[in-house]
TrEMBL record:
It comes from the Bacteria. This is Four helix bundle protein. It holds the Pfam family 23S_rRNA_IVP. Gene3D superfamilies: 23S rRNA-intervening sequence (1.20.1440.60). It comes from Solitalea longa. NCBIfam families: four helix bundle protein. InterPro entries: 23S_rRNA-intervening_sequence, 23S_rRNA_IVS_sf.
Length: 119
């Protein structure tokens, strides 16, 4: 997957998170979890774009680590929404799958960048 495709994929992920949060029930718990999910979900794409403009390989790796953390954090908030019975598993399955895939992509990218740095 090239940089442009991944930029688009992370932006689309953020838009899907926005849509999900907009449809959460208006309860105190859903609002708190939704706000956390909204922050981490939209920051995946923003931080990936920042990583693409890194000034060095080390800077790139550090910025990608932030992207990895944010995508994994999204999964945590999605799991809480499910396990707190705020949303049904079927409503979250695709977003959880995407959060897992994005996290795996960024872990792999970090590992590749580290290997290339050490070569």
């Amino acid at each position: 997957m090239n940089t442009i495709e991944l930029k688009n994929r992370t932006k689309h992920f953020g838009l899907r998170i926005i849509n999900l949060v907009n449809h959460l029930p208006n309860t105190q718990v859903a609002n708190v979890l939704g706000n956390q999910l909204l922050r981490s979900g939209t920051s995946v794409g923003a931080n990936y774009r920042s990583a693409c403009r890194a000034k060095s390989s080390k800077d790139f790796i550090n910025k990608l680590k932030t992207v990895e953390e944010e995508s994994d954090e999204c999964l945590f908030w999605l799991e809480l929404l499910e396990e707190a019975n705020i949303l049904k598993p079927i409503q979250l399955a695709e977003l959880k799958k995407e959060a897992n895939e994005l996290t795996a992509i960024f872990v792999s990218s970090i590992n590749s960048a580290k290997r290339n740095l050490n070569d």
